[in-house]
Automatic annotation (TrEMBL):
Coiled coil: none annotated. CDD domains: TM_ABC_iron-siderophores_like. Its main location: membrane. This is High-affinity zinc uptake system membrane protein ZnuB. InterPro entries: ABC_BtuC-like (IPR037294), ABC_TroCD (IPR001626). The chain crosses the membrane at residues 6-28, 40-73, 85-104, 125-148, 168-201, 213-233, 239-257. Involved in the high-affinity zinc uptake transport system. Belongs to the ABC-3 integral membrane protein family. GO terms for cellular component: ATP-binding cassette (ABC) transporter complex. Keywords: Cell inner membrane, Cell membrane, Ion transport, Membrane, Transmembrane, Transmembrane helix, Transport, Zinc, Zinc transport. It comes from Acidihalobacter aeolianus.
């Protein structure tokens, strides 16, 4: 196969490796809309990156972190519900990004590539960024796994037991922002949340423990990347959306399989 196919495959698998475990926490905490908010904010990061002449990933990471921290701070007020705040932040950031781009008349960018990804354009520098991001996210997850899990099951009880829930929530927001910045090249800002949620939801059906679910989510994400990428090459369809369609197809197949009587992940209990 051509080199660009191998690079796209490695990049997609690298993103799936961290999106799966992190997506499990998104599913357990019922924060799907939070992931959408961060991904919508990414366009403003792209616009500010062009405007300020800095690396786009730095701009995306900075804006996503700002949006996440802003939400964490605003959630402490009781006047507006969290989903309302998420909607305000998500659509405001997306619209600000579009307006900022409009003020750059000499700028010519592939907006569709940023919205839906351009995995076939992944280069060696992108692979290095994904690899470094993977190592950072996985190391932080390994260190904070038990605390994040305890805060996910019952935050108040975790605080009583001495778990620094506030700090771990900030860590979780930072990890999500980093994954959004890294994954945008693969599936685009509008589809990142799907890569976080669908593999995790697929793994949830048969997972025996949180750790098993995280590993299975990464595996299902990898299968979706492989299937979507080769389906895109076979039928000449957009690569990013094809990956999401492959992930959805895996979810449907798993959902239709007869369910064995095994314990679900403890934090996944309804």
């Amino acid at each position: 196969m051509p080199d660009f196919i191998w690079q796209a495959l490695l990049g997609g698998l690298g993103v799936a490796l961290v999106a799966g475990p992190l997506g499990c926490f998104v599913v357990w905490r019922r924060l799907a809309y939070f992931g959408d908010t961060l991904s919508h904010s990414a366009l403003l990061g792209v616009a500010l990156g062009f405007l300020l002449g800095v690396d786009l990933r730095i701009g995306i990471l900075a804006v996503c972190l700002t949006a996440g921290l802003l939400l964490v701070g605003l959630q402490r007020q009781r006047h507006l519900a969290s989903d309302t705040l998420l909607g305000i932040i998500a659509h405001t950031a997306l619209s600000l990004g579009m307006v900022t781009i409009a003020f750059l008349p000499n700028l010519r960018i592939d907006l569709m590539g940023y919205l839906f990804g351009d995995i076939l354009a992944i280069g060696h520098a992108d692979l290095l960024t994904i690899a470094l991001g993977d190592m950072l996210v996985l190391m932080v997850l390994a260190v904070s796994w038990r605390g994040l899990l305890a805060a996910t099951v019952h935050e108040d009880l975790a605080r009583v037991e001495g778990v620094p829930a506030n700090r771990l929530n900030l860590v979780f927001v930072m990890l999500l922002a980093l994954v959004v910045a890294v994954a945008m090249k693969v599936v685009g800002m509008l589809l990142i949340t799907a890569l976080l949620i669908i593999p995790a939801a697929t793994a949830r059906r048969f997972a025996r423990s949180p750790e098993t679910m995280a590993a299975m989510a990464a595996a299902f994400g990898g299968l979706a990347v492989v299937g979507g990428l080769f389906g895109s090459l076979r039928w000449n369809t957009p690569a990013g959306p094809s990956i999401v369609v492959a992930a959805a197809a895996l979810f449907v197949i798993v959902f239709l399989l007869p369910r064995r009587r095994v314990g679900e992940a403890a934090v996944a209990a309804r």
